[in-house]
Write a structure and sequence with these properties.
This protein has one domain. The chain is built from five helices and ten strands. It has helices spanning 16-68, 87-96, 167-170, 218-223, 278-286; strands at residues 124-130, 147-156, 159-166, 181-186, 189-201, 211-213, 226-238, 251-252, 260-261, 268-276. The strands form three sheets. A four-stranded antiparallel beta sheet has the order 1-2-3-4. A hairpin with a 2-residue loop joins strand 2 (147-156) and strand 3. The longest helix is centred in the N-terminal third of the chain and has 53 residues, at 16-68. The chain is elongated.
Length: 288
């Protein structure tokens, strides 16, 4: 019996050209995927930075607004004031010097609002009647009693801080029984700037600001019987992440300061507000 001859199998595979085309297409596809992932990562980091800065900005602006509203407040009618000092004289002091300047306090002559040089952050010192200072310190007074509070806002490093004082101690009217406390209000602060809305002379003013000035101009205006009736402040915040990659450096200017060019590895945003000091407006109107 004759066996049939088997048909030889033909070897199959990719040619060199086909392999090169496949490798090229694979590289193109891989590169596209990597580019999408990198772009997504960059966008995600930027979105996180924006969200963090905006949340911090909303927080600090709300807090400062609520505290600055009380600047210059001294209520002799309804407030339960500690009466260990002359409250009439204290009311006159707080209402006539709602913004403290260097030299105002007997025991701390260097404490006061300062217009910083070379674009550095300003310092703000305010007086008001309250049950506690910006740190929650009641300085040993009874829980329901109010006293002359002095709050000092300043930037140290990249932190916005506040130190609270007993104004009566600063004025030399009593000995210090509780030490002042300093707290950090917010970190990652790049700049803090302040301007003051000043009225006409108190005898003819309607309680409206007619100009906005810096702290180094307040002494002369106070001597001319003009009062601070509004605050304007700006604060620049930067993101925690230092991996934000922006293609172009941003420039920012806060209030009266010159514009600055910032790093491309952080996200920056400026928050600003102008606030009428309702207590001071009422004081100025009633003093005519």
């Amino acid at each position: 019996m004759t066996r049939g001859l088997s048909t030889p199998m033909k070897n199959t595979g990719f040619s060199l050209v086909e392999l090169m085309i496949s490798l090229t297409l694979g590289l193109i596809i891989s590169g596209a995927i990597i580019q999408v992932l990198v772009s997504s990562s960059v966008t995600n980091k930027l979105n996180q930075a924006v969200a963090q800065v905006q949340e911090s900005g909303r927080f600090i602006m709300a807090r400062l607004s609520s505290e600055f509203y009380e600047v210059g407040r001294y209520d002799l009618v309804t407030a339960a004031i500690d009466s260990s000092v002359d409250t009439i004289a204290e009311a006159a002091y707080v209402q006539n010097k709602p913004i403290a300047l260097v030299g105002d306090f007997v025991t701390s002559g260097e404490l006061g609002s300062i217009q910083a040089a070379s674009g550095d952050s300003d310092k703000l010192v305010v007086s008001l009647l309250g049950k506690e200072d910006c740190t929650g310190n009641s300085h040993g007074y009874a829980a329901d009693e109010e006293f002359h509070v002095v709050n000092h806002y300043f930037v140290s490093g990249s932190e916005l801080k506040c130190t609270g004082f007993d104004g009566r101690v600063l004025r030399g009217l009593k000995n210090q029984s509780v030490a002042p406390v300093t707290v950090t209000l917010l970190d990652n602060v790049e700049s803090f700037q302040v301007q003051f809305g000043v009225s006409e002379r108190i005898t003819s003013s309607k309680g409206q600001p007619v100009s906005y000035v810096t702290a180094n101009e307040l002494g002369l205006l106070r001597a001319q019987n003009q009062q601070v009736v509004a605050l304007r402040w700006g604060i620049m915040l930067k993101s925690y992440q230092n991996e934000v990659q922006q293609t172009q450096a941003q420039r920012f200017a806060l209030l009266n300061e010159n514009a600055k060019t910032m790093s491309t590895s952080h996200y920056y945003q400026v928050f600003s507000k102008t606030l009428a000091l309702r207590n001071m407006k009422n004081f100025v109107r009633s003093s005519q």
